[in-house]
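Table S7 (text form). Paired inputs.
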Amino acid sequence: MRNPLTLITGANGQIGKELTKALRNLHGTESVICTDLKPDPDPSGPFELLDITDINKMKQLIGDYKVTQIYHLAALLSSKGEQNPQLTWSINFDAYLKILNLAVEMEIDRLFFPSTIGIYGPTTPKVNTPQNASFLPSTVYGISKLTGEMWGQYFRNRYKLDVRSIRYPGVISYGTIPSGGTTDFAVEMFFEALAKGKYISYLLPDTRLPMVYMPDVINGTLQLMNAPIEKVSIASAYNLAAFSLTPASLAESIKVHIPEFEINYQPDHRQAIAESWTETIDDSLARSDWGWAPEYDMTSMVQDMLSNIRIQQNQVS
């Protein structure tokens, strides 16, 4: 395989920012081209404005930069996606199908597509969710991602395109505050705890969801993308998880460090979405195929999150 020259879509997002740093550290600043719909306020290397539905611009960038790998992160998330289902489908799936065809046409070496626990639904086992199960997602976000998984497997089988994918659980990070997702409470709570000493949760206290900390997200993603092709048995998407938590259990862990922290509950429309998802995940296939193993559990994640947010706040002040 050639030395990768990588293009990232949705590079300004929660995962995109951290993935950019990691890939530029590995391959060099000029080897990673970031793209997004809005400008990067602090670009650290090559950056191009890109509406992901503009496939002609995408083709031009691939050709101009001689791209060999694509990380296609651009998407509308679960909660925000329900506000405009047609737009969500256009961005999350229609654009992806065009990128799959473009990847074949332009002989892209490897393509990463992020999937999600949002593909799970009321018929999916909620405890120790297996790699293969009944998936009837309740949001257009989940529907688009499940469809994308199947098309990725199809393109691998028919065109030998090296598509790789992970079903991300809720992602916790301090670098970029997410917006539009159902699991965002697990990030918001930290910032509110430090800034105000209290938080109002839009999910009920015992709503249990699988999570993963950002350093493990990046390590796992790069581990999958760097694995030999013979170690990657599927292109649909791998189950992946690190720990599960509820708003109440996360609040209790934060109280260990901030005893005065208070949490209250005012569930909104995201409660129904969360209840359609799973509680714990069987990610044994990722572990056996390419060696996935998270470094952080909830306790170590909470300590690291609070430490890094405080550092950020001190730098600003």
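Next pair, protein 2 of 2.
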Amino acid sequence: MLALVAALVCSPSGAGDDSCRLRIACFNAENLATPGESTRLTRFRFEPARKRHVERIADVIEAIDPDILVMPEVVSKAGVEAVAAILREKGLKDFRGYHVDGADSFSGFDVALFSRIEPDEIDGSRIHINVPKRRPARGGGAEAVADEGDGDDAWLRQPYTFVDDRGADRSEEAVLQRHAVAYFTVCGRKIALLGMHLKSNPADVGANAQRTAETRIARDIIRRRIVAKGYLPIVLGDLNDYDPDVPMADAVRKTQTTVLRDLKNYDETEQGPELVNAAARMPRVADRYTSHWDFNENGVSDGEDVFTMIDHILLHRDLEPAIRRAFVFHAIDLDVSDHYPVVVDLDLSRKR
């Protein structure tokens, strides 16, 4: 009896099953490329700096110690494999990297997943991208399945219009080029992660219109590819917009779109938003920033720089009771990335 009482006292909320504890994170690696790799948008040109960048990214993963990590802005599968190899050298042998070859031919940016938990195999693959046409992975092979969508892929393209700087009407078409979907069964619960990197620049009219169109596609993916398969959605990554419902450290900048509210309310037939922003569980508003725009490009933090929260983890409201902690890991500097990881700790044994 004494042993039982001691165990209950030492175990938070009386739950001691570590198999139900889950740490999820997202972290924009800022153009992760391996030495010798050809990139259109180059951050580090030379081999020593690229090697150091890969090492530092692995250091960040080692420090935050996630079970599942979504990482935008990787250039190729080679970078994912390089980071995973370093993690194994560090003794973190249960990490595996999963790579999605994105559809963004301009930047070449892809979305990666690092996970200690093997994703569920769905339709013959463990990681998916939803783009209009099936595309082979660069360098051969087809690691990611490009789901073409019920015989009709029109929903994977969204038109949008805006007025450009010269006052001319512009009509364009959006594809959700940089995203990945992975499904997991943890502690008997089915969850699916939609990791995304939406169009940047929340102050630009054209970018805002494109991001809004990308969001319409994302909402369809959630409904068609996640909820329809019986999984609870978690949407995370570099969403490049602000949440008007969650105050951030920068009180000046405000969203010019409905992107975050649309993502949270992906099913308009239901009452209220289906997703909640984990950032609301961060006690200090001053901690709510995930992006460092080095405005004067001097490589240090100073008064001219901009710190905003554009990276988010949005969880289904049924998972809200499972949230134990949410925080932004600020213990890195600009030689690693211009973003900071967002981390959420869950206890999936907790239910409504």
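The helical segments are 2-10, 47-64, 77-89, 205-226, 259-264.
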